[in-house]
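so my prof wants the structure for this chain in the tokens format not the other one, which i didnt know existed until like an hour ago. anyway here's the sequence
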Amino acid sequence: MKEPIRVDLLEKYIKGDCTEAEIALVRQWYFSFEHEKDHVSDLSPAEEKQLEENIYFSIISNLNLVQPEQPQEQPKIVSFRRWYAAAAVAAVVFALSAVAVIYTKKSKEQQLAVTPVSDVRLFNITNNTGHIYKVTLPDSSAVWLNPSAKISYPNVFAADSRLVSISGECFFEVTKNPQRPFIISSRSIVTKVWGTSFMVRDNEQSNVADVSVLTGKVSVSAKVNGKTNTITTKLTKDEVMIYPHQKAVYLNDKHTLTAQAVEEKSAVKQYQRTRLVFDNKPLKDIIPVLDSSYNLKIKVSSEKLNHYILNADFEGFNLPDVLDALKKSLNIDYTIVNNHIELK
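here's what i got, hopefully its the right format
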């Protein structure tokens, strides 16, 4: 294995601060792995995609990039359009390089718990961070895991169905495939997807489980004695069908399942894709717009963050996309605590 490159040089490369000579050095180091065993050639496309996501997540979560102190009269100005593209390229290069360097290493402080089970070929993922974490499933469906949420899914879906199980709060954007129904099993309910985007909340600590639809339609049924109902593409008499701006609510203690209207300030609206444009706006002016657009409360841990200036076009972004963009463009972090978001 080649001698690892200096971490501070990689940090400079990711931030776009390298000189031409340093860029050449990083690229030379990267291409030096071209003829070495890459440890991923035998992985399936789904396993390779998951490995790439996990490495990228680990890099972003664990790099200690220090924000330099800046006087208020010289606010930090970032053009998101230019920086985000450069950061994406750097992150991809870094992630691909890291495959050869850290694939066989296990971090004792790994924040995302990923457990491949060889016998049944399942991926069990727990989001142990304060961030929202995105998982791409084998059929290209996307799932956003809120802090403490869990998901279990196979590396390859069955020919006649797509089954996953979850715990906690997860938002789904499911790829349509009527021939292979998408079934979500959680503690007390089963959610059958007909091609849509929606949120499922069901965990051991709550008496209430609910499914809120953003687009499309889903059907929800209660489990009988904790067992998953027989999978069928037809709607049964025990299922409740819900549509946009509706939710299905199940009460564990009363064993009742009902359809209701989604509240105006429902968390599902944080995943609504919209367009927000900011032309050299300070963060203190951006936060109220985000609060209003996504029905949430954002605060900053330091007054200096309010003076950071952003030039950005968030077209087709949901809240996790915006938060990820702020992390990359302004080099700030965030945590979710009691449904509030703190930037730091």
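also thought this was worth mentioning. Residues 80-102 form the longest helix (23 residues).
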